[in-house]
Amino acid sequence: MLKLRGAYTALITPMLEDTSIDYEGFKQLIEFQIKEGIDGLVPLGTTGENPTLEHDEEEKLLKTIVDTVKNRVPIIVGTGSNSTRYAVFYTQRAKDAGVDAALVVTPYYNKPNDVGMVKHFEAVAAVGLPIIIYNIASRTGRNIPAALMKQLAQIPGVIGVKESSGDMSQIMDIIAGTHLSVLSGDDSLTVPLIAAGGTGVISVIANLFPDKIATLVHAALRGDFAQASTIHYHLLPFIKAAFVETNPVPIKTAMRWLDFPSGPVRLPLGPLSPENEMLVRYALKTIQRH
Fold first, then answer.
1. Fewer beta carbons within 10 Å, N or C terminal of the chain?
2. Is 134 a catalytic residue?
3. What is the pLDDT of residues 106-120, one digit of tens each?
């Protein structure tokens, strides 16, 4: 069973100017991440713009990352849907591709009740791929409170949660009340979450700074919070800037400026506003000066 511990990058999906997928650029990003010491990769998630990817694009991205990584680091693939049938299908497809785990978001828009939520994750976990629940009420409209997470933790195959609720009290209740590995879904909360007993982060910022995020997480996990906090506060202005508009608009824009394979975002996401461009540029410069 996969041990969820460390720094994982929520990979962008690089695109060409016509918003077709830049598969060669995707390979370059994967190699950069591994070279810089990241612990694992998370493609086809929110940061990867999965709501706008076509089935054939997803399949080609899956094949590309499996063939490129060659078992050097774990691959955790976003397979969630607001349709249980589709979530099962996507998870089976990921399992068949040879990945290590699935990141399954709370069903969005439907706002399922507790019984429906349990049955949804039971159906997905029955595929036989380790499951990480992704709790992000700001996008789904439905929080998973600690009491319900304790029920979901009893489902065979559910091994962890990516917590993006921003509620540290809830997060601590989940850590205390379940066996799950708890990963931060918010770059700004990585250090306090690990201090409370969490095991790492699925990071947006790591697209640009995998070495810094990996160093921060590894320091925190070994109890060196002095080093972890120093890196955290060094990165904090850019962390804030990276979420000044909907993710992944700011991070893809910053990557483009630094000549990483990135490209535009797909509609309905639009380009970064001029005033926020200035903010992101300034925050990026503060990182580059050190």
1. C
2. yes
3. 999 999 999 999 999
